[in-house]
Amino acid sequence: MNQSEEIRATSVLPADRRPIELTTSDGLRLVGEVALPAGRPARATLVCVHPLPTHGGMMDSHLLRKAAWRLPALADIAVVRFNTRGTTSTAGTSEGEFDAANGEGRDLAAAVAWARDQGLPEPWLMGWSFGSDVVLRHGVALNPAGVLALSPPLRYTSPEELGAWSTVTTPIVCLVPENDDYLQPEAARERFAVVPRAHIVVGEGMGHLWVGEPAVRRVLGEVAARLRPELAPLVWEWPGDRADSEGPMERWSDL
């Protein structure tokens, strides 16, 4: 039996990864990917919305890519990623143009509808930075299983849009870096006071982009704890017996 291997920044665990195409209610085609547990059903679903595309955000932004690399194998979570309108990644370019978190609400709705049409478990929505504005502005109407807002700048979300979440019972978890460039924890507590049940989780010593393996593990650990609370905390190793039965841990390279 092989020994366990530590999961590192470039580690890619076994999963069933497939390209997907989404169609929005205004007729745009979006490119994306779903990563599913290999050989067994998903127990939870995570629909991801990436950071600001005008500043390099896309479906391959590192936290989202690492969620797709790790969570299907470690926690049986299906991870759905896509490029919002006008955004490009190695998967391709989605049709349309950037719309400042307006039309992107249609993009999110298309991703949620796709996940439900596939019979996946009811989705949690995870938005990172700009993506959190998309989720917070448009997610109420989608009736998600829960919301994870990473580094929420609340740049596009109005107080009224944020307050709309007080009318539903959807769990809301905000992961706010201590050293965020836009909205730090105390300010986040003030802004989210209109949704009293919103839970603020502080990333001590961390910044807006959650750079570095400790930051990635903090975020993905919180995701797993919310979506799969019945599981033990994630262990950042790929066991030898699972490598033998499910496949080896690979290393990603863009060279």
List the helices and strands and how they pair.
Blueprint: E1 5-6, E2 11-12, E3 16-23, E4 29-36, E5 44-49, H1 62-75, E6 77-82, E7 88-89, E8 92-93, H2 104-117, E9 123-128, H3 130-138, E10 146-150, H4 159-163, E11 172-177, H5 185-191, E12 199-203, H6 213-227, E13 237-238, H7 240-246, E14 250-251
Parallel strand pairs: 5-6, 5-9, 9-10, 10-11, 11-12
Antiparallel strand pairs: 1-13, 2-14, 3-4, 4-6, 7-8
Helix pairs in contact: 1-6, 2-3
Main β-sheet description: 8 strands, mixed
Kindly identify the CATH topology: Rossmann fold
**Strands, total number:** 14
Count of DSSP-assigned helices:
7
Give, in order, the helices and strands: EEEEEHEEEHEHEHEHEHEHE
CATH homologous superfamily classification: Alpha/Beta hydrolase fold, catalytic domain
**Widest beta sheet: strand line-up:** 3-4-6-5-9-10-11-12
